[in-house]
Design goal:
Number of helices: 10
Largest sheet: 6 strands, parallel
Structural class: alpha/beta
Number of strands: 8
CATH architecture of the largest domain: 3-Layer(aba) Sandwich
Strand order of the largest sheet: 3-5-4-6-7-8
Distance between the termini: 46 Å
CATH topology of the largest domain: Rossmann fold
Pfam families: Nuc_deoxyri_tr2 (PF15891)
Shape: globular
InterPro entries: Nuc_deoxyri_tr2
Helix content: 25-40%
CATH class of the largest domain: Alpha Beta
């Protein structure tokens, strides 16, 4: 078989569509092999189609049907001109292989890996001072603010931001959420693009203003911007991180959190009570009626480069139980 005839064992897709987790210790290597194979197969020196040519089919003694020809044409990838409907171009290979989530960033995304927990039932009564702010409108800040930094992946990530809002809407806080509903997938991620520039500026301003920053890594995404923002605010003393063990860079995230004494949990189920406690520790005080009654005077002071201290690592009580780990296909501790 010549190099030009090489076909990958399965077509490359983004992490958000292709990840399966039969064994969390081996899936990273398998997925990387698929990724590299897919990029090689689409490079300009190799075959440009994932489907057999008519010559290949005739060589096996069968002729393509009209339906097969139509299906094959739909599978053709392009590097020139407008991308295929429902796809955008990969930043690495420039082929139109990255799916665009239909319905925008607020469309329903199936929780295939059971990362989230249901919304409260019945719904929590919304506090009069609870605000859920999204760009492009400027946030309306109250006494305390929480920024939801985490996976969006052009709308492919699960709707964790809204689910977190469902569990916190009884608090007098401003929740700033960068996951805007309407977003043009063809916006150029360059400083010269006004829409992109304004979005990034909105996020940076909200991150700076936030009393607490909450990170959530969807295990079926790559989330490079979330990784960057984690590094940006790791020294701040105001962040809390939720990272599933199945996330492709979970080890990096956990080690960074250990180094800088960052509250860290492994599941959304643990994140909800942990972020409530984090906000309390950062000064959110409410009276018996749930109304804001002032920040405390004993807020934590953070060193320039805080190290790991074994004292008062309060978030450890939210660690996954062995039952939780088994549900994710992970071994017991």
């Amino acid at each position: 078989m010549s190099l030009a005839d090489f076909q990958p064992p399965c077509p490359f897709t983004t992490f958000s569509r292709s990840l399966t987790f039969p064994n969390y210790k081996s899936f990273r290597v398998q997925e990387r092999v698929r990724q590299i194979s897919g990029h090689l197969a689409r490079s300009s020196t190799l075959a440009t189609s994932r489907s057999d040519t008519n010559e290949d089919i005739m060589a096996r003694g069968t002729a393509p049907s009209a339906a097969a020809e139509n299906d094959a044409s739909k599978e053709q990838i392009t590097r020139d001109g407008p991308p295929r409907e429902g796809f955008k171009r990969c930043a690495v290979c420039k082929a139109d292989t990255v799916p665009v989530q239909p319905g925008g960033l607020d469309s329903t995304v199936p929780d295939k890996y059971n990362q989230l927990i249901p919304a409260p039932s019945p719904p929590l009564k919304q506090h009069p001072e609870f605000r859920h702010c999204m760009p492009p409108e400027a946030p309306v800040y109250g006494h305390f603010s929480l920024f939801t930094a985490g996976s969006i992946e052009m709308g492919a990530a699960v709707q964790w931001q809204q689910r977190l809002a469902d569990h916190l809407r009884d608090l007098p806080i401003t929740m700033t959420n960068p996951r805007r509903g309407k977003w043009d997938p063809n916006v150029d991620a360059k400083r010269s693009d006004a829409a992109f520039f304004n979005q990034v500026e909105w996020e940076l301003d909200a991150l700076t203003h936030a009393d607490v920053i909450c990170y959530f890594f969807d295990c079926a995404t790559v989330s490079p911007v979330t990784l960057m923002e984690l590094g940006l605010w790791a020294h701040s003393g105001k962040i809390i991180v939720c990272c599933d063990q199945r996330y492709w860079r979970q080890g990096n995230v956990e080690i960074v959190c250990e180094r800088y004494n960052i509250p860290y949990v492994s599941s959304f189920k643990a994140l909800v009570p942990a972020v409530r406690e984090m906000m309390t520790r950062k000064g959110l005080q409410v009276d018996a009626h749930g109304n804001f009654c002032g920040k405390g005077t004993g807020q934590e002071k953070v060193e320039t480069r805080p190290g790991v201290t074994k004292q008062d690592m309060w978030w450890k009580v939210y660690a996954d139980s062995n039952e939780d780990r088994r549900a994710k296909g992970l071994p017991d501790l």
